[in-house]
Here is the input.
Amino acid sequence: MSDTAVNLTSKKDWASDQEVRWCPGCGDYGILQAVQQLMPELGIMPEKTVFISGIGCSSRFPYYMNTYGMHSIHGRAPAIATGLAVARPDLDVWVITGDGDGLSIGGNHLIHALRRNVNLKILLFNNRIYGLTKGQYSPTSPVGKVTKSTPFGSIDSPFNPLSVALGAEASFVARTHDLDRKHMMETFRAAHDHHGTAFVEIYQNCNVFNDGQFNDITKRSVRDEMMIDLVHGEPILFGAERQRGVMMGSDGFLRIVEVADVGLDAILVHDRYHSFPSLAFALARLNTDDHSPTPFGVFREVDRPEYTSAVANQVAAASESKGPGDLADLLRSNGTWHVN
Amino acid sequence: MTDTIDRSEDASVLDRLVVRFSGDSGDGMQLTGDRFTSVSATFGNDLSTLPDFPAEIRAPAGTVNGVSSFQVHISDHEITTPGDEPNVLVAMNPAALKADLHRLEKGGTLIINEDAFDERNLEKAHYTSNPLDDGTISGYRVIKVPMTSMTKDACEPLGVKPRDAERSKNFFALGLVSFMYTRPIEPTVEWIEERFGKNEMVAGANTAAFKAGFHFGETTEAVGHRFEVRPAKLPAGEYTSITGNTALAWGLVAAGQLAKLPITLGSYPITPASDILHELSKHKHFGIRTVQAEDEIAAAGMALGAAFAGHLGITTTSGPGVALKSETISLAISIELPMLIIDIQRGGPSTGLPTKTEASDLNMALYGRHGEAPLPVVASYSPAQCFHAAIEAARIALKYRTPVILLSDGYLANGSEPWQIPDVDSLPDISVPFTIEPNGTDADGNPVFLPYLRDPDTLARPWAIPGTPGLMHRVGGLEKEDKTGNVNYTPENHQLMGDLRQAKLERIAADYPETEIVGDEDAEICVLGWGSTWAAIHSAVQRQRRDGKKLAWIHLEHLNPLPNDLGDKLKRFDKVLVPELNRGQLCQLVRGRYLIDAQPVSKVAGLPFRTREIEAAIDAARSAR
Here is the structure.
């Protein structure tokens, strides 16, 4: 919790009266809990908060939040949320999307929201499968994935969501996972505090159509060796004894190394505020598959002009220089003549 | 040269005049036509214009594909169309002659830039012999002028390079036509100064060319007699000359003011609608936010998101864009929020004829959504009337909390006419209150908010916007439960909600004034029109009745729901003719709705109806037994 925030609400103030209808065991429950628990700590009010989603399992999320909300259409949540935020920069606007919703049908809106740097908090639930349509491969499914629509294995190369976001000039990029409520809350809090578009990928388990997709990385028994916790200003270390780390070679590529072999000074220090996205991009692509160590945390956080403020500033500047609009004057602005 | 209007004694009086300026896309014909129009408007003529230009920004110079034209009709009496046939054609090159000579009236005046008729240009226009010599233009009153070289000569003393000077030849043509038809010259000289003043050389060249053209007319016998078209007897008041797109944009600004709501426009550039985006982007001091979206779908989404937030949400586009917005419009119907979708129709299908007019999106507007998804459709019918149509569309959207499609078209969008500026205080208040208090109680008697508890009169649901304490609620595309708005899939509820959406739509017709029958109530034939056909039908009705032929006319502004009294009124007539710039879309609808034998008068040529085409259809129906 930040020092200044005052808890004006409690967790129950943020839960709607609707029965949650995700499958028992779904990773979405953990994410909902993390969000509902975090909200009071942010010192914001439910009536000033809006959740906008697209279509898919994750997009049912707004129904369960006692805020203003819209369960919209497939892929379009970032666009709808942009209109909302432009109209009302005073609101806290969250976008809930999934790998299919955000990266397939809605890919265009996602990259343009990131490019514009609209003050939206985008939570992308990545379960690497189409759940609501009962199990087709998604744009994040690995090559070879056998699903109902790919009985001989997927032949599509997947997106790395963080690479997409960074390529779209995202000003805030992070990754967390559905098994660690504390880490989710920290990450969402950082996203909320960022003025601009915050993009958070959440590894989320679909226990019905893609169970255990992230087990090799996030289950308790492997976490120490497979998860890399990115902490700004600290050497990027991991392992039960923090005995391994990430080093940048003379060729500019990142490598996993044993600290004992290279010395602590050779280990890369994480800088999430670096103005160039190269390091964040390299870290986002450090895990080449699901069997290599994977970084979590905030990859990138930079200040750049935020869109809704820029829109509001132009409106204010125009009103300042021209005065409030006068309709009668407007109708005469192209020249007039009188008929007697 | 006098400094105001030359009312020389010898000018003969014409009651009307149609001039068509025709040249290469790079020749500045739209600008020339615009100037002629503005000067005539200020002079007091009634007028109507038809810009006609290719979709290509610069098709290969000198080719027929690259011809850009501007037709303007001025008169001393009320007119509504840009004229069936030009009386005067200004042809700046062989391609322009080839493209437009067939439009010129027999014996009409042909003003030709003879410098452009060299071998190369003739070849580009696919002339095998020179039309100036081979009899092609016999039968017209021909005035051949070496415009290019005379413009260069006029600009030489200013030190303008010949290549640059050549660009001013459109002003030479304008000067010549201004002399011939006794147009005031000062406004144009002033306008050149204002528009090009920053570049002294260009302003000087244009002014010199303009004056040279005027002087050429004065001193050359070939030009002969001058003509004048005297001011029209328009109702007293203050006027401006306005295009449909400007009127529509101003109507939207007015709607925001009258609704006391800020406007958020989401729009993606598309011909012929982009000018509305441009115009609204200029007026941020009215509290207008404009976002150029990444695509048509996003543009609609932004408008809907803004509507949820409590703004007047608007998206502007043309037919291809409406197709893309269809799913978002369905969502707006489901979540019952006000939103305006403006469709400036153009020729289709697919990319079709981007710069040409058509009214073939009616069926898409009425039916182009999945599921039972009724929405109101309003159609503007003249350039200036676009202003009021925008306000009417917004009124319906706000009062009934529904997306509304407003149809205009390319002809209205770019055409212009004089407009008597309305008194701002006479415009309607279209504001609606936001809901700020709970409107129901739960089982325990605690106050709750029911987002789908409807107003009993309008069936509109409450509009409670984010930021309002205690009224937090969720909307979405899944079927909503009556009153609570919770997700509900039961058969009874879906039937009820579908019935309510339809019933709400039908309530809208209660606001309409009685349907007006123009002309003779006891006529055999009634013309039923909508949209921009208004101009040609208006002229046809005037002429027919002047000739003593009885005729009735109903013109619809509301296409959905149709007026409650329409069926009874149409059934009074033996014959109903429905002229449309499509293959009979409204005609099919009224045949089915009212079981009447309405007959289509169809045109899908990318051009508006000519008056005589409408008249011919009426005469044919009259003589058919």
In short: Residues 11-213+305-309 of chain A form a domain with the Rossmann fold fold (CATH 3.40.50.970). The first strand of chain A starts at residue 49 and ends at 53. The mean pLDDT of chain A is 96.
